Amino acid sequence: MATTTAAITISSADLLTDPLSLSTTSTLYKAGTSTGLEQVKMGKQKLATGTNFKLLLATTAGANSASKAYIINKSTDATYYITVSVSTQVIGKLYAGDWMFIPWEQAATSQDLYARAYVGENTVEWASFHEGETLTS
Amino acid sequence: MALIPTLTIKDATTFSDEINFSVTDSLTVKAPSSSLTTIIADTTGANNIIVAANADKQTWLFVRHTGTSDGTSTTSAHCDIELTGDVAVGTLKSGEWFFFPFCGNGGSTGVQLQAVGSAVQLEYAYWSDNTAQ
User: Fold this and answer.
1) Which of A10, B40, B59, B120 gets the highest tally of CB atoms within 10 A of its CB?
2) What rounded mean pLDDT belongs to chain A?
3) Are A60 and A66 in contact (CB under 8 A)?
4) What's residue B31's pLDDT?
């Protein structure tokens, strides 16, 4: 049985008067079920500046399905960053060392996840935990 | 002031080899921020704006679906996370969470929650860093 878990801990010793520590874990299920996701893709890319690259492709099968996207900017220069977009809309920025984990919504096949590098060539690693992908002949 | 987010993904059963990795980061943050709080999101996103559109900062946003509609009653309804203007970013189902580096797009957009079908109670918090966007 597939059981993939994603856990997050967020802590700070100096943000507030009292230390901050929150944590939670979720099991990655197929949409509307308690059956675990069984399909994974992952990769690593070097992104040159000047182009908005498709990192993860939305699919017809992905609509109304579960899909979790993880992206990390592995650049080491603190000034380097990438923008992350859904279709043409920039949704966020990842600076060197930053990561994100989102339940990606592929409401339409135009909802691809894009990444674009700024300042210099950025290295990113990514993974998608999902369902619905089928082989084609 | 440093915020330390850590992600750990594990899977020991799906494949022949185990997935087990952990990443951490150290974020320099300052005001504005919002400590962990709850919101009951209804089905109109504009009613549930959790990060204002004028917050033109790099903003780290954590949102979690509590699995309830009001803190007590279980719900299977999910909740979309959107930029203001109804641009969908992701969708949270019961028990799921989301951690995301929202940027203000020049101060023109915020973040809102839109429950699908019926109300959902969520927890959220955000922290901004000193990088103007």
Assistant:
1) B120
2) 92
3) no
4) 79
* Beta-carbon separation of A2 and B88 below 8 A: no
CA distance A107 to chain B (A): 8
From residue B21, how far is each of A7, A25, A125, B18, B26 by CA, in Å?
11, 14, 13, 10, 17
More confident residue, A2 or A41: A41
Instruction: Output DSSP code: residue A61.
Output: T
Please report the ipTM that was assigned to this predicted complex.
0.91
CATH topology of domain A5-11+29-130: Jelly Rolls (2.60.120)
Interface mutation target, options B1, B6, B11, chain A, most CBs of A under 10 Å: B11
What residue segments make up the domains of chain A, in order of their start? 5-11+29-130
Window 37-56 of B, Cβ < 8 Å to A: none
Chain B (61-90) residues lying within 8 Å, Cβ to Cβ, of chain A = 62, 64, 76, 80-81, 83, 87-90
Q: What is the pLDDT of residues A28-39, one digit of tens each?
A: 999 989 999 999
What fold is seen in the domain B30-132?
Jelly Rolls (2.60.120)
